[in-house]
Amino acid sequence: MVVNLDENVIEVSQLGVQYDNTVWGIKDIDVTFKKGELIALVGANGAGKSTFLNAICGLIMPTKGDVFFNKNLINRNTPFHNIGWSKQTHAIDWYLNVFDNVIVSARLAGKNRKASKIDTLAALDLVGLLEYKDRDVDALSGGQQQRVQIARALVHHPDIMILDEPTTGLDAESSEKLLSHLKEKANKGGLVIVSSHDLNLLDSYCDSVLLLKQGSIVAYEPKTKFISRYRDKEILTIEYEGELDKRKLVEIEGVVTINDLKPLVLEIKRNTPIGQIINKLDSLVFVMDINRTSPGLREAYLEVARAKEEG
Amino acid sequence: MLRSDANFVNTRTFRKGTRFHWEKTFILAENELKAVWHHKPLLVNAFLNPILYLVFFMAGLRGMTGGILVNGIEVDFLPFTLPGILMMLVISLMGHTVYRSTIDKRWGLLGYKFMNGISPLSYVTGLMVYPFFVFLVQGVLLAVLSLFYGITYSIMNLILAISLGIVGIIFWCSLGIIITTRINDYHQRDIVLGLMTLPILFTAPTFYAIESAPVYIQFISWFNPITYQVTAIRSFFLGQPDILMIIIATAISIILLLLAVLLIAKAELVSNEH
Predict the structure, then answer these.
(1) Where is the ABC transporter domain (chain A) (predicted)?
(2) Taking residues A140-158, what's their average pLDDT?
(3) Lowest mean pLDDT: which of A30-34, A42-46, A274-278, A304-308?
(4) Most Cβ neighbours (<10 Å): which of A166, A188, B137, B271?
């Protein structure tokens, strides 16, 4: 159920969280999240993503600044009534089984016992855990435990989803299914904020990108604009057999950066003829397959992060 | 900088003003009972404990000990020590509360519960439901078993004694929650609990008359809450209610409950356990 969200769902003003009165986890964050968006929160380890999400949810009291939620969406005494939240580490009750871990969320959101049971079974079905509903959570794999958390975040049909690395430990199929569901929620007018290191996956589903570095926002813009920073480059992915020496690749004209060695992933200038590159490679290894693509979120992210470092 | 627009709510207010809510307290209590139900060995252990204490400890010592003088009246060892056993059981139930609240704190469930509208008072009382339930069964079990040793009580005195035991649970479980909020290190917490239990149990008139103890133990017993709790419960078992002790035992439980509520309300919601 997605209600009519007002345009601005969350407004963050001058937000800063300091740890032990010394280190700033995040600082001076000003941002507004609007309805109908799936936002990818990206950044290196320690960039402040989890701190930021916890501060948004009210789980950390900001050292300075404020976070405002649209009053029509949030009851200040039961904010999670309309927020689906999952954290990086498993916020699971290890004494309860799968079903009981999930149903409590629906019950606390105010649903009666019968409706909660129906919604719990549906949520478990969505995350592929229906057949494990009576299992103890500690008997599940890490990925399945993650899915319990996700089911609990989804079970009460919140309009706002704030998920910290929800795809960690999930297999490719489950990750796609989850993101697809979240995208559908955003398309219906909800707000979804997802932090993840799986940039290729986020690339297919997110509308906007928020890049954090050392606790500050480096970029927050629509994905297409974010990627356009990278428009002068293309990606060449080459499958090969044999051993490659990275030093010999640097000498090839047109190659800007070597991202990976196996398969070989090269950044080249847009519209660079690749004949010379292939000829050179052919003299070094046995080339099996070549794929030329436009850059995506991952490449743009690396580029922005790199540029910032150099700056 | 506060946003002037009245259409927005600040997250700083998320944890303020959450009121006690019966329905949410019941949901939490149900959760706590389910948690134990999924780990039945805990229940078996809880119900075996009083039987083992009575059959092997109390009955064994009873044979080598005569009666104990209480207010000038000689009392059989078994009814004298029964309140002490009850307090031992209460303290062991504190361990359960510590463990459950630690899980909540460690895994972020405390924040999850608070953000779902569970008030600090609901949280604290919800965590006590399992200890209440277990203690009730343990108390009845002890009373029934002691019948086999020729000890009888009036039903009313038994109900009042167990009720006071439940007041004791409020004290010790509140203390458990306070310890959880103040100590973030698993090992440190275990050490504190381990070191605390034995001296507390044996510097009070649990298994002997305090008048027969060395002076320093008698002095310490004045500051030991178990002194008041065990004396109050014993006074019911012996059919001579000690009003002052009952009032003190109840008052310290209320104080600890309020303190636990106050501290859990201010607890960090993002784990810093290690």
Answers:
(1) 10-239
(2) 94
(3) A304-308
(4) A166
By DSSP bridging, strand A37-42 and strand A208-213 are parallel
Please tell me which of the candidates B3, B19, B39 has its beta carbon nearest to residue A13: B3
* Contacts with B216 (C-beta within 8 Å, 6 or more apart), sequence order: none
Q: Where are the domains of chain A?
A: 8-228, 233-294
pLDDT in tens, A57-108: 999 999 999 999 988 888 888 888 899 999 888 889 999 999 999 999 999 9
The string of DSSP codes covering B44-89 is HHHHHHHHHIIIIIIHHHHHH---EEETTEEE-HHHHHHHHHHHHH
Q: Residue A17: which of A67, A62, A47, A68 has the closest Cα?
A: A62
Contact B11 A85 (CB under 8 A): no
Contact yes or no for B103 and A93 at CB 8 A: yes
Minimal Cβ distance to A54: which of B19, B113, B270:
B270
Burial (CB < 10 A; 0-12, 13-18, 19+), residue A25, is buried
Nearest C-alpha of chain B: how many angstroms from A126? 22
Comparing A208-217, B171-180, B210-219, which segment has the lowest mean pLDDT?
A: B210-219
Q: Which residues 6+ apart lie within 8 Å of A307 measured at CB?
A: none
Closest-approach residue (CA) in chain B for A10: B8
User: Are A86 and A164 a contacting pair, CB within 8 Å?
Assistant: yes
Check A104 against B31: CB less than 8 A apart: yes
Alpha-carbon distance A89 to A159, whole Å?
23
Q: How far is B164 from chain A (nearest CA, A)?
A: 29
Cβ separation of A109 and B100 shorter than 8 Å? no
Looking at chain B, the whole-number percentage of residues with pLDDT higher than 90 is 43
Give chain A's end-to-end CA distance (angstroms, integer). Answer: 45
Say yes or no: domain A8-228 is CATH 3.40.50.300.
yes
Q: How far apart are CA A247 and CA A241, in angstroms?
A: 18
pLDDT at B2: 46
CA A219 to chain centroid, in Å, comes to 15
Q: Where are the domains of chain B?
A: 30-265
CB contact under 8 A, B11 and A67: yes
Q: For residue B170, what pLDDT is reported?
A: 97
Please list every residue in chain B whose beta carbon sits closer than 8 Å to the beta carbon of residue A81.
116-117
**Predicted complex: ipTM over 0.90:** no
Closest Cα to residue A165, out of A140, A152, A146? A146
Q: If you measure CA to CA, which chain A residue comes closest to B13?
A: A76
Dig out the tokens for B12 from the structure: 């700083």
Chain B residues in contact with A74 by the CB 8 A cut-off are 9
Residue B187 to residues A97, B58, B180, B184, B196, Cα–Cα distance (Å): 27, 32, 12, 9, 14
